[in-house]
Amino acid sequence: MRDQCILSWLYNSVSKDVRALVRVPRSTAYTIRNSIHEQFRDNELHHAVYLEAEFCSLVQEDMDIAAYTGRLKQLADALRDLRQPVRETSQVLNMLRGLNSKFRHAVPVIATENPPHTFLSARSYLLLEEKYDHEHDKAAQHQALVATGGGTHGSAPSSQGDGGSSSSSRSTPPTTPRSDSNRGRGKKGRGGGNGPHGGYGSGQPPRAPGTAWTPGLNPWTSMVLA
Q1: What is the pTM for the complete model shown?
Q2: Which portions of the chain have biased composition (kind: Gly residues) (predicted)?
């Protein structure tokens, strides 16, 4: 009865694929346990080599700090399960090696800390730096948006004002002011004929004098009336 309870626990603890591989009819809990152990420990040295290569070549690129450090922790835990544990200082230095260039200012701060940073404390420091960068970028974008919007609204009235002044200058012709001397000569010419053209002091050409009507002559009939 006890052996069946352990078998049930083992079958429910592993995945379906592993259970299908190790399940044998009428087997004991000890036999199933050894089969599971062999599945996980088989070729463990080769698995460790590939995991260590991935761990040492992992770089952040477009990942955020949480995703990058999470993947490093998974690889370190997998190496520990294969009896190839990674030291704490090696985890920290490898994390600094693969950081994005925008965090290069944090590398000497973490690397020269005494006592040395742990993996989790270095991760917390980088998360704080990432949060600061996000807030700084948002503030810079807001300032650029305000500056762009202010320049657009400020230039619109001036352009309208320039257009209005130019249109008004085109629609209204310039007027030539008349001097007092011209007005005086005009009055003289009309009053007593003192102008050069017999009373047309304003400069207009004189009209041709009309033919006087001779008394006793009817212009319509060309007859002399007595």
Answers
A1: 0.54
A2: 191-202
